[in-house]
Amino acid sequence: MECTVCGRENRPSAAYCAWCGAGLISENVSTDSDTAHPREGGAVTRKLDLAEALESDGPLERGTVLDGRYEIVELQEEAPDSRTYDAIDRARCPSCGRALEPDHESVAYCQECGAALDAPPRVLVIEYLVRRPETFASHWQHGGRDYYVIDLPEPAQEDAPMETLQLTFGSATHPGYHYDHNEDALDARLYADHLGTSLGFFVIADGVGGQQGGDIASRLAIAMAWERIYHDVWQDAMLGQQTSDEACQKALAEALAAANAAVYEERTARASEMGTTLTAALTVGRQVYVGNVGDSRAYLFDQEGLRRITQDHSLVQRMVDAGQMQAHEVYTHPRRNVIYRSIGDRPQLEVDTFVDELSTDGRLMLCSDGLWEMVREDGLEEVLLAEPDPQAAADRLVQNALLAGGADNISVIIVQAKG
Fold first, then answer.
1. How far apart are CA 352 and CA 310, in angstroms?
2. Full domain range(s) for residue 313
3. FRET label pair with 29: which of 82, 93, 282, 371, CA 20 to 30 Å apart?
């Protein structure tokens, strides 16, 4: 029997060409028959009718589900005797490859590895193929056609970190020499697991209002911000669910808004003038998301030096921005402590958010104005260069602020990144 693909002769009863592997049309099967000659692998023998059949039926529509699991995404290629589709496999875990239970549609995470199931693995589905692929994951027949599935590798995540960062931190706070109690508050939390998930949440609040309850405002704001971050980001990340830049920025802004609502409610109930600044940083792998209200600051320190991420919401900063004074005059201006935006001051809150990246051996630093006013940026950078341990650096910075006069409450958090 002559192969219609390569033209070589085969034995009369052969189902496949011994030379090229193509399906052979049996002389005992009429091309007018609606019954395909059965043979191993399910390849269709009525090759002469393939082009006509494909043309009359048309390609499968987007969203068509085959074999109860393969969902067609789009037609990739069409040949005279076959079609190739991009598809997704809804019955297999995208991470570990485990077959999912029949009721997997109601399950959000793989029971084997814990990965999220919202991004099914990609496959190729080949329809009505005369010569079957050399390798394929599965095969079935439907409507007189053959379908073959070829698994595709998952595309690399563009925003995935090249290496896992290990974070450590140091923190310190002091009421200073001019106050009998500390209205500053801070919090620092880390999470890391064996799968490479790395999370951090760091926040500093500088209460305002003195006897009106500034210390209450700072602690309440931090507690509410953490509660919202845990609900919106933290617990999902712990379960292996990935988050986007937009989602993290939104979560951070909403965390500060929740803090504002809680402090405003308490302020109203007490009929006081309490309020607080709040600067918070959420780290997800290398990415750093910062939210800021007031004049507590966030800095990044790496091989390029110290750079400030946040912008103060203060009267003197506005004067600097307007060209009415020089930046170095901020430290001695009599109204340097006047801020125009704070947590709890009004029902609605505008939050500044920033996105940056932690480098290997880089540092993230958050501090209240009691530190940066006393030590100034040159002094901050000097200590960060001299002290490799984040806790030792935090302690030394507070000590330097006290030596400079300790005119206000002092707080600092230093986060160290290691590859």
1. 8
2. 166-418
3. 82
